[in-house]
Amino acid sequence: MHRIWLMYDPRRVMVAVAGFVGALAFVIHFILLSSQRYSWIENGTLSAVQAPVGASAPAMAAEMSPLPPGR
Q: What is the DSSP letter of 55?
Protein backbone atom coordinates (compact mmCIF):
# COMPACT_ATOMS: atom_id res chain seq x y z
CA MET A 1 0.00 0.00 0.00
CA HIS A 2 2.84 2.39 0.73
CA ARG A 3 4.05 2.12 -2.88
CA ILE A 4 0.77 3.61 -4.09
CA TRP A 5 1.41 6.70 -1.94
CA LEU A 6 4.93 6.90 -3.35
CA MET A 7 3.41 7.19 -6.84
CA TYR A 8 0.64 9.65 -5.93
CA ASP A 9 0.82 12.71 -3.71
CA PRO A 10 -1.64 12.15 -0.80
CA ARG A 11 -2.63 15.84 -0.72
CA ARG A 12 -3.63 15.80 -4.38
CA VAL A 13 -5.54 12.55 -3.93
CA MET A 14 -7.48 13.95 -0.96
CA VAL A 15 -8.29 17.16 -2.87
CA ALA A 16 -9.44 15.12 -5.88
CA VAL A 17 -11.62 12.87 -3.69
CA ALA A 18 -13.15 15.89 -1.93
CA GLY A 19 -13.86 17.51 -5.29
CA PHE A 20 -15.46 14.35 -6.62
CA VAL A 21 -17.66 13.94 -3.53
CA GLY A 22 -18.70 17.61 -3.72
CA ALA A 23 -19.57 17.32 -7.41
CA LEU A 24 -21.50 14.12 -6.73
CA ALA A 25 -23.48 15.86 -3.97
CA PHE A 26 -24.40 18.71 -6.34
CA VAL A 27 -25.48 16.26 -9.04
CA ILE A 28 -27.66 14.31 -6.59
CA HIS A 29 -29.29 17.49 -5.29
CA PHE A 30 -30.00 18.78 -8.79
CA ILE A 31 -31.51 15.42 -9.76
CA LEU A 32 -33.78 15.62 -6.71
CA LEU A 33 -34.73 19.19 -7.54
CA SER A 34 -35.68 18.16 -11.07
CA SER A 35 -38.07 15.48 -9.80
CA GLN A 36 -41.63 16.44 -9.01
CA ARG A 37 -41.85 14.53 -5.75
CA TYR A 38 -38.66 15.75 -4.07
CA SER A 39 -38.44 19.35 -5.34
CA TRP A 40 -38.45 21.40 -2.14
CA ILE A 41 -38.15 24.72 -3.98
CA GLU A 42 -41.12 24.53 -6.38
CA ASN A 43 -43.54 22.74 -4.06
CA GLY A 44 -42.65 24.36 -0.75
CA THR A 45 -44.26 21.55 1.22
CA LEU A 46 -45.44 18.10 0.29
CA SER A 47 -49.09 17.14 0.31
CA ALA A 48 -50.27 14.29 2.51
CA VAL A 49 -50.35 11.97 -0.49
CA GLN A 50 -46.79 12.78 -1.54
CA ALA A 51 -45.23 12.96 1.93
CA PRO A 52 -43.18 10.05 3.27
CA VAL A 53 -45.04 7.51 5.39
CA GLY A 54 -43.59 8.62 8.74
CA ALA A 55 -44.35 12.28 8.10
CA SER A 56 -47.91 11.73 6.85
CA ALA A 57 -49.15 9.82 9.89
CA PRO A 58 -47.93 11.47 13.12
CA ALA A 59 -50.97 10.17 15.01
CA MET A 60 -50.16 6.60 14.04
CA ALA A 61 -46.55 7.08 15.06
CA ALA A 62 -47.67 8.40 18.47
CA GLU A 63 -49.84 5.31 19.03
CA MET A 64 -47.02 2.88 18.25
CA SER A 65 -45.39 1.27 21.24
CA PRO A 66 -41.96 -0.38 21.31
CA LEU A 67 -43.34 -3.58 22.88
CA PRO A 68 -46.38 -5.67 21.93
CA PRO A 69 -49.44 -5.23 24.16
CA GLY A 70 -49.46 -7.26 27.35
CA ARG A 71 -45.74 -7.09 28.05
A: H
